[in-house]
Amino acid sequence: MSDRSNTSTRWKFDTRRIPILHEQFRSFIQRHKDESYAGYLLAGPYLLYMAFLFFIPILYVFVVSFYHNDPVATMVPGFTLDNYATFLSSGLYRGALLVTVEISVVSTVFTILVSYPIAYFIVFSKWRYSQVLVLLVIAPMLVGNVVRAFGWYALMGSSGIINQILGVFGLQYTLLNTKPGVIIAISSVLMPFAILILMSVLYTIDQELIEAAFNLGGNQLQTFLYVTLPLSLPGVIGATLISFVLTMGTFATAVFIGMPKVPMIAPFIYDAATTDLNWPLASAMSFILLAVSLILVYLYTRVTDIQVGGDAV
Questions:
Q1: pLDDT score recorded for residue 260
Q2: Which residues, 6+ apart, have CB-to-CB distance to 198 below 8 Å?
Q3: Which residues contact 257 (CB under 8 A, 6 or more apart)?
Q4: Cβ-based burial of 231 (10 A; exposed 0-12, middle 13-18, buried ≥19)
Q5: R_g over Cα of the chain
Q6: Which ranges does the record mark as transmembrane (predicted)?
Q7: In this structure, are residues 308 and 233 in contact, taking their beta carbons and an 8 Å threshold?
Q8: Cα(241)–Cα(230) distance, rounded to whole angstroms?
């Protein structure tokens, strides 16, 4: 009993040392803040986190994509391009990738067009309850994607509320298993992220610049086009990138709302890994999806950087 108490006492942390440790860390940073490696010291924990939880898994997926498939052992180490050849030679897989890119682009554009006015209203509106909208924006983020996708599945089904409302006007149109239905469902997932990003940028705009535009004779539209919108472009670009990347890898919405008539690539990756137990093919498909996403993101950032730079000049 005494040994156990001694052990617990030995490992007990003295909370009174926290201010001392904090002061030692702060003084260490102050002494080395001008050194070239200071930034790496501060970013070290994050870099380690990203290395173990992102870069190493991605590298492993890339390596596995060249392995041989085996029905018993799932995968056999080696080097083959058969997995990439299988993907490129399959019209179903290539079509699913194109549909994924198409839906990602349309969903992203739709999300930004709807999210920007909402974020603008929350930030600049004089309505006393405008901040309540922030809670309504955050609320969907508290629900998992699977639950939200199933909710849209119930709404868009043949006996769902949407069809019942359309039936009152003599219309019959099922959004389930259609591209518009998938876009609407995905956009509902993306909007909270986009709105919060846009709000964070709109809040940083100097109000004196807007007042100066009005004082110089600009109306509401001119002030928005020549002051507010250009200053909020970083938020638009950030929200666009986040929305596009999230859509490229969407799974729950693609399964509940889209499949099988609107095939997207993520469900095929899941089926290859779990149903077919073809991990090398699933890895190859995953890496192709990642490569396409990175290429499109790079092209978008290059185009927006040129345009923003040109406008600044």
A1: 86
A2: 115, 116, 119, 120, 232, 235, 236, 239
A3: 149, 152, 153, 156, 175, 176, 177, 181, 182, 185
A4: middle
A5: 26
A6: 46-67, 96-123, 129-147, 182-203, 224-257, 277-300
A7: yes
A8: 17
SS3 of residue 313 by DSSP: coil
The secondary structure of 245-292 as a DSSP string is: HHHHT--HHIIIIITTTS--HHHHHHHHHHTS--HHHHHHHHHHHHHH
Burial class (CB in 10 A: 0-12, 13-18, 19+), 174: middle
Render 160-196 in DSSP notation, one character per residue.
SHHHHHHHHTT-----TTSHHHHHHHHHHHHHHHHHH
CB neighbourhood size of 54 (10 A): 10
pLDDT for residue 313: 35
Residue scoring higher pLDDT (71 or 15): 71
Letter for the amino acid at 166?
A: L
Start-to-end Cα distance in the chain? 76
DSSP class of residue 55 equals: I
Report the greatest alpha carbon distance in the chain: 83
d(CA 21, CA 23): 5
Residue 62 parent element (H or E)? helix 56-64
Residue 69, pLDDT above cutoff 50: yes
* Residue 45 pLDDT grade (very low, low, confident, very high; cuts 50, 70, 90): confident
Task: Give how far Cα 150 sits from Cα of 49, 107, 147, 175, 268, Å.
Answer: 33, 19, 5, 14, 19
Phi-psi region of 262 (alpha: psi -120 to 50; beta: other; left: phi over 0): beta
Residues whose CB falls within 8 Å of the CB of residue 56, separated by 6 or more in sequence, listed in order = none
How is residue 205 written in tokens?
Answer: 């705009």
CB 96 within 8 Å of CB 264: yes
